[in-house]
C-alpha cells in the first residue's frame, strides 16, 4: 500500500510524462499500477486529473492546480528529511560536483548559471563534461546529468525541465538555389546536412509528425557537432533539421528559413537527473535544484 506522499509522487511524475507507460518506467512500476494510482486519486478528489487517449495523456485544469500543490508538498517533505544534514557552512558547501550535459546546453544556456553559482560558492569545484552521448552516472562518477529525449529506467531521480522542438531549415541562399520543398516526399533528393548520433555513429533521420522519419538521400555534409551543423546550413551547403535552441535567433534574424512547419514532430523533453541511491551532499542538491529552476524558466520563443 502506497503512502499519501508516494501517491502524490506518482501523480507528479505522470504529469511530467507523455504516457502512463513513460511514468511507469521512471517509477519502476507497471503502467497498470500507475493507472490505478491515478484513478484512486481521481476518486479521492472527485475530479478528472488527465484526459487520456490511445497515444498520450494531457493534464486537466484541476490536475494543473493539484500539480502545483503536490510538487510543493513533496519539496517541503524532502527539505524536512534533509534538515540537519545540509548545514550551510564552509565544510558542507565545498567539494566537487561533476555534471554531464549536451555541449550546446552546457555552453549556451547552462554556463551563465554555473558562473553565478561559482561566485556564490567558490569552494565548490565544478567539473562539466560536455557531450552529446549518454553518460552513465555511477560508472563515470557523475553527480548531475542533463539529457534530451527519453531516459531509460536506471534508478535515477528525474525531473522534466523544458522541451526541444525540431525545425527543418535552410538558408535563403539554399532556397534560392534548390527551391522550397512543399511536401515531405520532395526532401530525399535535396542536398542535406546530416547530424551524427554520437552513441551509434549513424546519421540521425529527419523527424516529422505522426512518427514519420526520413533519411536524406543526398547528404553532402555530416557532423556530430550541432554548432558546426548550424554553420553549414547557414553557409548554404544544404537543408538540415536542428533544434529551436540552436535555430531561433537565426530564424528571427532572417538568416534561416523554417520549412514545412505543419509537419514538425512532437517536441522532445529535456530532463535533469541524478542517482537515486545513497545520500545526496548539500552542494549537489543545491546545484541540482538550481539547474532545475533555471532551465524550467528558460523561454526560447
TrEMBL record:
<dbReference type="GO" id="GO:0003700">
    <property type="term" value="F:DNA-binding transcription factor activity"/>
</dbReference>
<dbReference type="GO" id="GO:0006351">
    <property type="term" value="P:DNA-templated transcription"/>
</dbReference>
<keyword id="KW-0804">Transcription</keyword>
<comment type="similarity">
    <text>Belongs to the LysR transcriptional regulatory family.</text>
</comment>
<dbReference type="InterPro" id="IPR005119">
    <property type="entry name" value="LysR_subst-bd"/>
</dbReference>
<dbReference type="InterPro" id="IPR036388">
    <property type="entry name" value="WH-like_DNA-bd_sf"/>
</dbReference>
<dbReference type="GO" id="GO:0043565">
    <property type="term" value="F:sequence-specific DNA binding"/>
</dbReference>
<dbReference type="InterPro" id="IPR058163">
    <property type="entry name" value="LysR-type_TF_proteobact-type"/>
</dbReference>
<dbReference type="Pfam" id="PF00126">
    <property type="entry name" value="HTH_1"/>
</dbReference>
<dbReference type="InterPro" id="IPR036390">
    <property type="entry name" value="WH_DNA-bd_sf"/>
</dbReference>
<feature type="domain" description="HTH lysR-type">
    <location>
        <begin position="1"/>
        <end position="60"/>
    </location>
</feature>
<keyword id="KW-0238">DNA-binding</keyword>
<protein>
    <submittedName>
        <fullName>Transcriptional regulator, LysR family</fullName>
    </submittedName>
</protein>
<keyword id="KW-0805">Transcription regulation</keyword>
<dbReference type="Pfam" id="PF03466">
    <property type="entry name" value="LysR_substrate"/>
</dbReference>
<dbReference type="InterPro" id="IPR000847">
    <property type="entry name" value="LysR_HTH_N"/>
</dbReference>
